Amino acid sequence: MKRTNLVLNGEVLEEAVRLGGERSYSATVRQALEEFVARRKARRILELEHSGLWTGDLSAMRRDEVAEPGSGDRDG
Q1: CA 47 to CA 58: how far, in whole Å?
Q2: pLDDT tens string for the chain (76 positions)?
Q3: What is the DSSP code string of the chain?
Q4: b/e per residue, 29-68, with b = 16+ CB within 10 A?
Q5: What distance in Å separates the CA atoms of residue 38 and residue 59, rounded to the nearest whole number?
């Protein structure tokens, strides 16, 4: 854990607490940061899908399927 002091917009923080359902400001900020990181990682995967740097079948992964190696079948 890392302790820090933050200066936050009080109205936005209160709305985040209400929407997130957490019981504390710390839990709300932790939840927000975890969701932010997850979204950024997901965006990076989407960017890599067509770059040639990442190989795999994103559509199959979304359906929780494994594509046969070398099949070239992107639709499963």
Answers
A1: 11
A2: 889 999 999 999 999 999 999 999 999 999 999 999 999 888 887 777 667 766 677 778 778 765 565 555 444 4
A3: ---------HHHHHHHHHHH--SSHHHHHHHHHHHHHHHHHHHHHHHHHTTSSS-S-HHHHHTT--PPTT---TT-
A4: bebeeeeeeeeeeeeeeeeeeeeeeeeebeebeeeeeebe
A5: 19
Q: Which amino acid is at 48?
A: L
Token representation of residue 61: 């992964």
Burial class (CB within 10 angstroms; exposed 0-12, middle 13-18, buried 19+) of 6: exposed
